[in-house]
C-alpha cells in the first residue's frame, strides 16, 4: 500500500514538473531577447538586447541558431528577476550564461538547453527558482556549479532530453528550503548528476539516470526519498 502510494505520488509529481517545464520554452513569447547578431557580451549592455532595453522582469530568451559558441556574462542588478529565462542554441553551437560575481542574484524560472544546446557556468552569486537542465525532445543542457548558491524549488535534469549537472563546489538547496530533484532516465530522458564537491540538500531525490558522488556532501535525511526507476 505504501509503495503504491509512493508510486502514485511520484507519478503526480513527475506530471506536474513535466507540464511546468514546457509552459514556456520559445523565444517568440519572450519579453526580452538577446540580439543574435551579438555573439558574446554583458547582460547589462542595452545594445546587446533587441529593442535596446536591459531586461529586469518578464520572460527572457538568450537564443541562437548557428554553429558558434556564445557567452553572455550575467552582470545585471543585484536583484534582477527575469521571470523566465531560456538559454539555448538551436543550431549545432551552444549558448552559455556565466555568473561569476558574488554580489549578483538571479531569480528565475530557468530553462537551460530547451530544444537546443545551453550551458550555465555558476562560479559565484545566488540563483533561485525552478531550474530545468536539458528539456524538450532535442534539448541538451549543462549546469556547472563551482561556487555560489543554487536554491531551486525544483531541479529537473534531462526532461525528455539530455541534461548534465556537474557540482564541484558551492551549495545546491539549503537545510531550510524544499528541493524536489529529478535526475531523469531511462524512459523519460537522460540525466546525470556528478557531485564532485560542495554540498547538496535534496528534500525529495528521484534518480532514474546517473548519480555519481566522488566528493562533497549529499544530505539525504530521514524525510528524503531516494528512488530509482
Would you kindly provide a written description of the structure presented here, covering whatever features stand out?
This protein has one domain (2-227). The model is unreliable at 1-27 (pLDDT under 50). The chain is 9% helix and 45% strand. It has one helix and 22 strands. The chain starts with a helix and ends with a strand. The strands form two sheets. Strands 1, 3, 5, 7, 9, 10, 12, 13, 15, 16, 18, 19, 21 and 22 form a 14-stranded parallel β-sheet that branches. The chain has an eight-stranded parallel β-sheet with strand order 2-4-6-8-11-14-17-20, with no helix packed on it. The protein is mainly beta and 229 residues long.
Integer-rounded radius of gyration: 17 Å
Residue ranges: pLDDT <50 for 5 or more in a row? 1-27
The overall pLDDT, averaged over residues, is: 85
The level of helicity is under 10%
- How many strands in all? 22
Largest sheet: 14 strands, parallel
CA-CA gap between termini: 18 Å
Beta-strand content: 35-45%
Which series of helices and strands comes N to C?
A: HEEEEEEEEEEEEEEEEEEEEEE
Helix/strand-derived class? mainly beta
Q: Please give the count of helices.
A: 1
Total individual domains = 1
Overall 3D form: globular
